[in-house]
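Structure ticket #2291
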Amino acid sequence: MKNSVNTLRSVNMNLLPILAELLRTANVTRAAGRLHLTQSTVSGSLRQLREIFGDELLMQHGREMVLTERAKRLVPEVERIMELTGRLFQTEQFDPYTAASRFRIATADYVSALVTSRLGAVLQTLAPNITLTLTPTPGTSAKELQLGSLDLIICPNLPSNWQACGISRSDQDFQYEIFMQDDLVAIQWRAHSGSAKAMSQLEYLERPHAVYCRTDGHETIEQETLNRLGLRQRTQFQVPYFTLLPQLVVNTDIISLVPRSLALHYVKIFDIDIFKPPFELPTMDLVMIWARSREAFPDLNWLRNLVRQASSEAECA
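Resolution: structure written out below.
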């Protein structure tokens, strides 16, 4: 494997911001204007970049230039390098109003729904140039947190969820915080004949169910509880997204279990009834996990506070 230091020394790093703008704009003239460089300088840099990557990067398509497949694959990597480079040389102060940081959080779909519903107005007003990307937790890893390609993992504080991310609670390379407590509640169509009435365990189990299923093969809290109690319910739908369940119960006999915070969010949108299931379920603690080596970064501290604020509003909703 080629030594990374020697590779950096052999490449003109001044080409990096030019590459970033060319990938963003797919236009030599526009990139030159944004960089305050001459068009000939950017054209010359593009020739050098083509030699380095062994690829055209930009190709003529009709009257426009388009990115090659190789260039498209470079976009997220180059953007992340530009962001990390900016962080490396930034001062210890962080002003969200003027910052153009790009944050990436891996989390469950229902947490994404709650966070985005509360952060849209906040980001637009207080941090208009910041980009927040939310991705699913399956496929995330400890290495991404350490490298900085991922800023936060948010997941239930369960051994199987930690394991799925390749992280141990005792690993000193990572810091975590339980920032929100949620519980599972049952939902059904509000106009159903059984709505607003006490439901026996037998009726509950015999009604059709739509259930959340994990894509990593591990059991959910619902599945673990039913197995532990020796109960079997009639499962009609299995979906990998909590956010689909409120829609599935409307106009049907279906019952679903969803986090209370999600139920309270969607009861304002869908005609659903929230009730306590006829058996005890454990509470669901949500945990934020981040790399200890990046704990003191002012921008990441701001991000964690933002998530805390959003979760606090969700719990009070």
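Closing remark: The chain has three domains: 4-81, 102-181+285-316, 184-282.
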